[in-house]
Write a structure and sequence with these properties.
63% of the residues lie in helices and 15% in strands. It is α+β, with helices and mostly antiparallel strands and 65 residues long. Strand 1 and strand 2 form a beta hairpin.
Length: 65
């Protein structure tokens, strides 16, 4: 269970770090993605984008193997 928790944390950190680049591609603007604007900063919780990227990566690994 600890492996899954670490994997989830690493995935969220990577997506959050790459979110400015991913937003240029249109990710982070789907219904279900949460954007909170506080004190001039935008905080993004990309729930739908994360599920979409996960499905794409799962399909890619399924095709490769």
């Amino acid at each position: 269970m600890l492996k899954w928790l670490i994997t989830l944390i690493v995935a969220l950190v990577l997506i959050s770090a790459l979110s400015p680049m991913l937003q240029k591609l249109g990710l982070g603007r789907f219904p279900g993605d949460i954007v909170v604007k506080r004190h001039g900063k935008d905080y993004v919780v990309p729930i739908t984008s994360t599920m979409l990227l996960s499905a794409l990566l799962a399909a890619l690994t399924w095709l490769v193997t």
